[in-house]
Amino acid sequence: MKNEDYQVSQEEIAQFKERGYNDDMLPKTPEKRNMGVKNYFTLWMGSVHNIPNYTAVGGFLFLGLSPINVMFALVISALVVALFMTMNGRAGSKYGIPFAIHLRSTYGDLGAKLPGFLRGCVAAIAWFGLQNYTGSLALLVLIGKVWPGFLQLGGDASFFGIGIPGLIAFTLFWALNVLIGIGGGDMLNKFTAILSPLIYIVFGGMAIWALRVAGGIGPILSFDTSGATQSMNPFFAYFMIINSVLAVWAAPGASVSDFTQNAKSTRDQTVGQMASLLVAYVIFAFSSVAILIGGSIHYGIQEWNVLNIVDRWESFPAIIVAMTVFLLTTISTNATGNIIPAAYQLCALFPKKMTYKKGVLIAGLISFVIMPWKLMENADSIFIFLNSIGAVLGPVAGVMIAHYFFVSKQKIDLNALYINPEIKNSKNEYRGLNRQAYIATIIALIVSLSGQFIPAMQAVSNVSWLVGFACAFVIYLGLKKLGSESKTEEVFD
Fold first, then answer.
1. At a CB cut-off of 8 Å and minimum separation 6, what does 75 contact?
2. Distance (Å, rounded) from C-alpha 297 to C-alpha 210?
3. How far, in Å, CA of 219 to CA of 137, rounded?
């Protein structure tokens, strides 16, 4: 199969550098495209098998669907996510451009700053800190299992609301995450290559344990979750699960070009990501349902927190191994979804002064300074704040995909896209702000959030990402069509 991806030349790279763009913002030349099918296959494994996702499955089991239907819904969700990731990643893999530049091709150089800042800086840095804190709590438990006296260090002393053992655990886990982030894509490739087989072994072993203690697959599939909303329409329950899974991938899906820019070819990222997400979610769908229900049957309670199930095990080595893998998957998720996008976005905002590694360090320091343990003290406000930012990403993704495939027809003029700041060219299609893109994004955002304020629209809140994406997609194409028609009328008048 012929590779039809654009091959940027060294002459173009030199020209773009003269315009003030640093290496991290430049299109990737063929020799720098080092991610093949295998790399993309392992890339997202750790992002699927993490603690929040297992907790979410516990919630899905209360929607009124049978365990087997929850599994099917998760696999369907994986297919939708895989299509989203590969389609939105095409601009990156075809032209070798990062998310910040991909975003500019849709919203314009001025228009890209706000959605890019919200995705790459505010949301990414805040979530980086929060996930570091959540992971450090698991690390604290793990250290306490090995060294019980550690939990008593410092006595009642605290540092801005966190005890000395908690601060040490947070600092260690934070530093490890930052180091992985500094290593960038190359380090992440090596990290996920080691992590992926561990995921198969550990979560496969946990699923086998669950089947054994539950008495086989039959009791798990026939398990009845008391308190489920049996009156809910099964089709709507499916859509709720699909929307929830998509919402988890909203941020990395929007900025997936930060990873696909390194693809050896568009075919490699498409095959790799499709296989990765489908295989990972097939395993996750079975293992998560089996472990949660099997553990509940075995211990005689309905327990939907997988860490609590692991903590009840009698085998100390098994607890250590399982908790360690959970920590590693948190690191993988944090790197792919937060610190790497944050660093690239800082590079985009300050192209002449910022490099990727400086971006990682600055984002990491900010995530520490905001003291995420303090943010967690008022969980409602911080999650409403971050979820509101996340709600923007559905409409943003809808506009990005609509623009790339139906407006620009998968064609980008790199020479025009990498704007020369010294030349005032008002006819450059990438200069300024794409008004239609902003109008579509804002209207879709209002619609997707309507369920939060209008009781009659409450159902929209349960499928907000899908609604926001679809609305933005349709509205943007409609506005573009109206715009082109008005221009045609002006020509003939």
1. 278, 281, 282, 285
2. 9
3. 33
Q: How far apart are CA 397 and CA 249, in angstroms?
A: 11
- pTM for the predicted model, two decimal places: 0.85
pLDDT tens, residue order, the chain (493 aa): 456 899 999 999 999 999 988 888 899 999 999 999 999 998 888 788 877 788 788 888 888 788 999 999 999 999 999 999 999 999 999 999 999 999 999 999 999 988 888 787 877 888 888 888 888 888 888 898 888 898 888 888 888 888 999 999 999 999 999 998 888 777 777 787 788 888 889 999 999 999 999 999 999 999 887 555 555 778 888 998 998 888 888 888 999 999 999 999 999 999 999 999 999 999 999 999 999 999 999 998 887 778 788 888 988 899 899 888 888 888 888 888 888 888 888 888 887 788 889 999 999 999 999 888 887 665 555 555 555 666 778 999 999 999 999 999 999 999 999 999 888 877 889 999 999 999 999 999 999 888 777 877 877 877 888 999 999 999 999 999 987 665 544 433 3
Angle, helix 124-146 to helix 340-349, in steps of 10 degrees: 150
User: 270 Cβ partners below 8 Å, 6+ apart?
Assistant: 86, 89, 90, 93
Instruction: Label the pairing between strands 158-159 and 162-163.
Output: antiparallel
Tokens 């990765």 locate to 276
| Helices of type H across 61-98 | 67-88, 90-95
- Evaluated on CA atoms 216, 219, 221, 227, the torsion sign reads negative
| Cα–Cα dist 347/357, whole Å | 10
End-to-end CA distance of the chain: 48
Structure tokens at 235: 């089709």
- Report long-range pairs for 402-409 (Cβ below 8 Å, ≥24 apart): 402/472, 402/473, 402/476, 402/477, 403/105, 403/106, 403/434, 403/437, 403/476, 404/88, 404/90, 404/91, 404/105, 404/106, 405/87, 406/477, 407/477, 407/480, 408/105
3-state SS class at 159: strand
* Bridge partner list, 263: 35
Q: Which of 101, 133, 218, 183 is nearest to 361 (CA)?
A: 183
Take residue 262 and report the two structure tokens written for it. Answer: 């390194």
> To which residue do tokens 């959540």 refer?
134
